[in-house]
Fold D-alanyl-D-alanine carboxypeptidase (Penicillin-binding protein 5/6).
Amino acid sequence: MTIGLASRTAVSGCVLCAAGLLALAPAAAATGPGVDPAPRTTDAPASLLYRPGTHVRPRAGAPEVPDLSARAWLVADADTGAVLAAHDAHRKLPPASTLKTLFALTVMPALPSGIRHRVDPEELEDIGPGSSLVGVAEYRTYRVSDLWNGVFLNSGNDAVRVLAALSGGWRTTAERMEEKARALGARDTHVKSPDGYDAPGQVSSAFDLAVFGRAGLRSPEFAEYCARAEASFPARDGGSYPIVNTNRLLTGADGVAPYRGLVGVKNGYTSHAGNTLVAAARRDGRTLVATVMNPRSGDGHAVYEEARALLDWGFDAAGRVNPVGSLDALRSAPPGGPEADAVAVSASRGGDTEGPPVWWTITGAGLLGGVGVAVYLRLRWGPVPKD
């Protein structure tokens, strides 16, 4: 039997429609419950970090996570980004001078350390009352490296002011810091004062500060400054004087035992933020980063002792806990924090997402196949008799 051109066309269309139906059905089914339509940057454990309380996923034989008084804390593997345990990781709190880690990440790449700069009096205006200072003097010439020593060791807000002036100004620097935070996947941080001085609306989180600390350790220059215990700073009269890092976990000052293997990063304090700390340590080829925000135990050194407890636990728990999240989880995720993750989860469960739903796709393919069959039958056998 020979089929005419029209009939062959109809049959070909029918076959193509049927093939489309068979091809689309498995693909549509693959977006049904429990299957991701595409890889996501956040996985199920990452969403745990948005929930309040303490999160840890111990295996058999894992040590018990320490009971801390801090309002928020986190400990993570700095190499892999795996978060080992956390408490209120995304709680937005004032960061105090730990925000200087983000300041350094933003400004340091654009300012070569050997540059010399003569300080204008205007650059030292508007420093907040009670600020920590390293002693930058107007009309004195400093190398950029001197100013970074002032930032990391003495937490000098005067040094931050001058470096910000060299980097485009106070407001521009704050805007660039927020852009840098978003690029790193730190979405809880809002910058109003680049030096960390208390300002309405200025917040960060234990998660974000750990992100900044980890990113800083990847920069040899940043890592060198944040691990430095002592340095000399140029004096107003042309001489110099010694400055000592205020991170007691690094120096062992004021009765705080130094932490073995500590490699930095930055401490902070304001009356509003309380004590804050980003601390990193390396042992046996493994580097951990811990953040502690606003301990409430009443002990003035609690921020150091609670960071010590977290680092000890993290090293002891190696290989005996499953991650509760990742410091890389939000680096390339869509904006919106947990809401964006909820959208991704909805997509993986066949919920309302952009594009036609699964049932529409299957039904449409079936209708096209049916039309092809009808056309073929009409061309082959003629009009269908009416009742």
